[in-house]
Amino acid sequence: MTSKYFKMIMISGFMFVLILFFLFLSFSCKNDLSNDANKKSLVEEMDTIERRSRAAENLLIKLQDLSKKGFAIGHQDATSYGLNWRHLDSPDSIKSDVAKVSGKFPAVYGFDIGHIELGRTHNLDSVPFDVMRQLMIDAYKKGGIITVSWHADNLTSKGNSWDKTPTVSDLINDGKLQQTYTLWVKRVADFLKSVQVDNEPIPVIFRPFHEMNGSWFWWGEGNCSVEDYKVLWQGTVDLLRETHGLNNLLYAYSPNKLNPNDDYMKYYPGDDYVDVFGIDIYDFKNSEDYIHSVVHDLAIVKKVAQEKQKPYAFTETGLETLSTPNWFTEVLYPNIENTGVSWILFWRNARVDHHYMPYEGHPISEDFRAFEALPKTLFLEDLTN
Ligand code: BMA
């Protein structure tokens, strides 16, 4: 009786394995034979999930999809503070200068984690990291997209990001500095891992070491060689991805506006290390020059991104103090509406002499409302609808 029963279990077990095997075979054949480049085999899918969480994969898809409808409007520190207010002072309500002026919240939320590497409680612009975490979670839960830059201090001089003392070559050759940098990246990883919804780290577009073709940061042109830059980028991503197991990050590569002989891909660390292409271009109160760069440079970014089948964005822009009348509808919009960028990030509203989005009562408010009403501008509610 016992042995008959055992035999039956063995046979049904064997049949079960056989069915599974055929099921798997039919799945992989289907994928092998299908000509659809977007379909992944089971094995590929497992690899991708390990490398990028499901949520990060979804974000990549969202970026591609939304670019077919328009471009998402982003603002740096949108909900952390604005002109004459700080989230810290009235944490019960979420505010934003963009919402105060247009009635709509931005779709993309930029944050900067400079000074997380030092183990500080506040970032370089005095935003407490605990508040930042809450604001990231809030924005993500509402359907917003989160992007994070990192104005890290200089390892060698202990000055800030703008301290040009060469340090990347030191880092590559000096074991002691490597130890410190490893700790810095651990602090970055710990923070980005701690921003969770339903016990899962939320997906974040991480944009470290930006504007490297300019010479104002320690990781920039002239302060760090091209080869060293790539080693720095790859080493940082390896630490985050492999040592700390972060799979919620998409990595954005964002040089500054190109000068005539600049090569957009000069500092590119490789396809395995970049998920999104970007560029930072500011209007230094010269619309003509700005428009020329926007049109010329975004065309290059678009070409590269399309070849590599990755999304692309206008990762930083703005006109400080917004002193050019109708800037949003006349200078910016016509020159980006057909570029296919997924998002555009305006820099922070810090002070009356340092802001890039209108605030209540700003003379450009009406133009901004007209910009909001144009077909391609996507705000938070446009993403979720
Ligand atoms: C710069 C300025 C600085 C700020 C830094 C990081 O462009 O806005 O005041 O500290 O970004 O946010």
Q: How would you characterize this protein structure?
A:
It is a single chain. By secondary structure, the chain is of the alpha/beta class. It has a single domain, classed as Alpha-Beta Barrel (TIM Barrel). Helices cover 43% and strands 15% of the residues. The strands form three sheets. It has an eight-stranded parallel barrel with strand order 1-4-5-8-9-10-11-12, surrounded by four helices. A two-stranded antiparallel ribbon has the order 2-3. The longest helix has 32 residues. It starts with a helix and ends with a helix. 41% of the residues are buried. The N terminus is likely disordered. The structure holds beta-D-mannopyranose. The site of beta-D-mannopyranose (BMA) has 6 residues, from loops.
Name the CATH architecture.
Alpha-Beta Barrel
Name of the CATH homologous superfamily: Glycosidases
Low-confidence stretches: 1-11, 17-38
How many domains comprise the coordinates? 1
| Small-molecule binders | beta-D-mannopyranose
Query: Strand content of the residues, in percent?
Result: 5-15%
Report the mean per-residue pLDDT as an integer.
Answer: 91
Q: Provide a count of the helices.
A: 12
Give the secondary structure arrangement, pairings included:
Blueprint: H1 2-33, H2 42-51, H3 54-66, E1 71-76, E2 81-82, E3 85-86, H4 97-102, E4 108-112, H5 129-141, E5 145-150, H6 168-173, H7 175-194, E6 196-197, E7 200-201, E8 204-208, H8 226-243, E9 249-253, E10 276-283, H9 287-308, E11 312-319, H10 327-336, E12 343-346, H11 365-373, E13 377-378, H12 380-384
Parallel strand pairs: 1-4, 1-12, 1-13, 4-5, 5-8, 8-9, 9-10, 10-11, 11-12
Antiparallel strand pairs: 2-3, 6-7
Helix pairs in contact: 9-10, 10-11
The site of beta-D-mannopyranose has 6 residues, from loops.
